[in-house]
Design goal:
This protein has 256 residues and is α/β, with parallel strands linked by helices. The chain folds into two domains: 43 residues, no CATH class; 205 residues, Rossmann fold, CATH 3.40.50. It has nine helices and six strands. The strands form two sheets. The chain has a four-stranded parallel sheet with strand order 1-6-5-2, with helices on both faces. The longest helix is centred in the first third of the chain and has 14 residues.
Length: 256
């Protein structure tokens, strides 16, 4: 699109759809191109990436592992990272959660580049170790009903930013209940067990799995387990957000 055509296109678009913040609907000034106003951007609860466990939860100084990772019998991931905190209950003041829900359930695909920039910010330390990027798949019927797979859109936008190939490494072969509808960790793990299988793709030594939200990690772990069985030795995970939960409760009684 030429510069002139682009200006005309946006002028017409702004006439019928005045640009405004995707969260609070504050109108932008003429010619301003953004998804969030400065006020909403400042409200995003970012996760401090300076000292995190391999599962991505922030740790106090002096600790290297959270109780859950310390209790694991088998290590699947090298590292998981998440950009910010997510709140499952409806809260219009929780900016990042509202963005993700608008993107995922409201069909606002245009938010994918913004959310991918958040992935880039959180996952930049992982970039040198990654050979391929993949994503949590959906059942074809569910993807057709929604119109897109949000994890795939995010992965492909991140692939453009990082210059790394994006592959469809997994297929979803079983219908499952929405993970958000299940409260117990064990229920989520059983819900997702056996839901995926390996797809045909060129093998590699390391791969990054992208998803929108990390809650208990059941979905990412099931995907990583299959990829490891398929011969990939180094698995990494990256999500836009992580569900808030009590970080230091007994892992055997984890509710999320």
């Amino acid at each position: 699109m030429s510069a002139l055509r682009e200006r005309v296109f946006y002028a017409v678009l702004d006439l019928f759809y005045p640009p405004h913040c995707a969260v609070c609907a504050t109108p932008f000034s003429e010619g301003e191109r953004a998804f969030l106003c400065a006020d909403c951007e400042g409200k995003i609860e970012r996760i401090d990436q300076r000292h995190v466990c391999r599962c991505g939860c922030p740790l106090p100084e002096g600790l290297d592992l959270c109780p859950w990772c310390a209790a694991e019998s088998e290590r699947v991931f090298e590292q998981i990272r998440s950009f910010g905190w997510y709140e499952e209950r409806e809260d219009p003041n929780h900016v990042l959660s509202t963005l993700i829900k608008t993107f995922k359930y409201g069909g606002e695909r245009a938010l994918a580049p913004l959310l991918a920039r958040y992935l880039d910010e959180a996952g930049r330390p992982l970039r040198p170790q990654i050979e391929r990027i993949t994503f949590v798949p959906m059942r074809p019927k569910a993807e057709r009903e929604r119109g897109f797979n949000q994890a795939e859109l995010l992965a492909r936008e991140l692939g453009k930013l990082w210059g790394i190939p994006v592959v469809r490494a997994l297929e979803k072969i079983k219908d499952t209940q929405p993970q958000a509808s299940l409260s117990q960790h064990e229920a989520r793990r059983e819900n997702i067990r056996g839901a995926f299988r390996l797809a045909k793709f060129t093998p590699c030594a390391s791969i990054l799995i992208v998803d929108d939200v990390y809650t208990t990690g059941a979905t990412l772990t099931e995907c990583a387990r299959l990829l490891k069985e398929g011969g990939i030795s180094q698995l990494y995970g990256l999500t836009v957000a992580r569900a808030t939960q009590k970080i230091y409760e007994d892992p055997k009684h984890r509710a999320q």
